[in-house]
Specification:
There is one protein chain. The protein is 39% helix and 16% strand. The chain is of the alpha/beta class and 419 residues long. Strand 1, helix 2 and strand 2 form a beta-alpha-beta unit. Helix 12 packs across helix 13. The termini are far apart.
Length: 419
């Protein structure tokens, strides 16, 4: 079987999107590569990069599978919600992409909230395969419909031990590192070493686009490799490889500027933290994950500004709590968490608010406080002005002194308290 001729990221995404307009006519197996429900920069770019790399693998002595898998990178959010992610702007521009190039849940047959007449019906589970990036359990509606068709995992979160026997074809990699995209780049690096010869001609341009896309989440999630708690050897090796690709791509490719990783990091980070124009509900759902555990629903919002910003946005403490309660009711939550980050004169800081509203949720929050308070370095936030121990449930707000613990570490502790 002849290898596919490489194309740009934009052409690749355009072809993948067009396949979904008439999926029944496709001869190959539709293999969706999808990130987690928060649909953050790491999830979105990891899905695109891995789908592209597996569509255009290096030459091999062994024949490719027949029929050839058709890889489709799926952004796990509605198209309208892409506007909540301003950090995508500078990243997509560097990769010669735009928001409209991405494939969202609205393009997945049967998942659009406004299906036009004659639209393709929802894909049958058995006609699809799914590869997970930046998570290792398929959650939500996708999980309910397609959870039995997961054939691959690439993730850097705590391993939940799912799909261990189902990932022979696409592999199962769960490894701690700063960014899932570092694991994707590790696969690219290994393929590059096996190929031996460097890219030539137009392929160098496509390499540059892919490298700039993949580099963004790694430098953001590791604070440009300066975060001691997040940065691993995998991240360092990935960044080194991507910078070499960007440098080598200059030969024969016109570039407008000399690439500076620090400038790129600051540009993307600045865009990510620019949430002043968003309403409070949009801020809560911008970087949000939800889990079902022992019959309870847990949702955690990560916010790149401090609680004082959220309170001012709402118009006061009580207005903030009212908005948060409405968010809990909208999502059907027993426990809600809000994790904030900020940078100030005292350096990087974290805050954590957790609220349980029903009997089991209250018990889970109390258990979490007792078991994880010391582990996370929790201390009362502003003399407990946001705390409540009766009436509206059990609510606690803390400064989190163990700043190395992000949602990746806090969520498993909360989920464990819910069991």
């Amino acid at each position: 079987m002849t290898p596919l001729r490489r194309v740009s990221l934009r052409s690749f995404l355009s072809s993948a999107k067009s396949l979904l307009t008439n999926p029944a006519q496709q001869k190959g197996s539709l293999t969706f590569i999808v990130g987690n429900e928060s649909a953050d920069l790491d999830s979105l770019t990891s899905a695109i990069a891995l789908a592209y790399l597996r569509t255009y693998p290096p030459p091999s002595s062994s024949p490719p599978p027949s029929p050839r898998p058709i890889y489709i990178p799926l952004s796990n959010l509605r198209r309208a919600d892409l506007g909540l992610r301003p950090e995508l702007g500078p990243v997509l521009r560097r990769a010669n992409l735009s928001i409209r190039d991405l494939i969202t849940l609205d393009e997945l047959p049967g998942f659009s909230p406004t299906e036009p007449p004659g639209a393709p019906r929802r894909l049958e589970s058995q006609d699809t395969s799914w590869v997970l990036v930046d998570h290792n359990v398929l959650q939500g509606e996708l999980g309910r419909v397609y959870g039995g068709r997961v054939v691959g995992v690439m993730d850097h979160h705590a391993d939940e031990g799912k799909y261990t026997a189902a990932c022979r074809a696409e592999g199962r990699v769960v490894q701690a590192c700063g960014s899932c995209c570092s694991l994707v780049v590790s696969e690219w690096l290994a393929a590059s070493l096996s190929r031996g010869a460097p890219s030539v001609g137009e392929d160098r341009r496509w390499d540059r686009e892919l490298a700039l896309l993949a580099l963004a989440p790694i430098v953001v999630d590791t604070a440009n490799l300066q975060s001691r708690s997040r940065t691993t050897d995998v991240d360092v090796a990935a960044v080194s490889f991507l910078e070499s690709v960007i440098e080598e791509s200059k030969a024969g490719v016109e570039v407008e500027e000399v690439f500076d990783r620090k400038v790129y990091f600051e540009e993307v980070s600045g865009a990510k933290e620019d949430i002043g124009s968003l309403g409070l509900r949009d801020i809560l759902r911008k970087d949000y994950k939800q889990w079902s555990e022992a019959g309870l629903e847990l949702g955690i919002s990560s916010v790149v500004r401090p609680l004082s910003f959220l309170i001012a946005k709402a118009g006061g403490e009580q207005e903030f709590l009212k908005a948060l309660q409405e968010w809990m009711e909208e999502r059907g939550l027993s426990v809600v968490g809000v994790m904030t980050t900020s940078h100030g004169e005292e350096g990087f800081r974290r805050e954590l608010l957790v609220w349980g509203t029903n009997e089991k949720g209250i018990g889970a929050v109390r258990k979490f406080e007792g078991e994880s308070g010391e582990k996370l370095g929790l201390r009362i936030w502003r003399e407990g002005v946001l705390d409540a121990v009766e009436g509206t449930g059990y609510r606690k707000c803390w400064h989190q002194e163990k700043v190395e613990c992000s949602r990746k570490q806090v969520a498993p502790l909360l989920r464990g308290a819910m069991e």
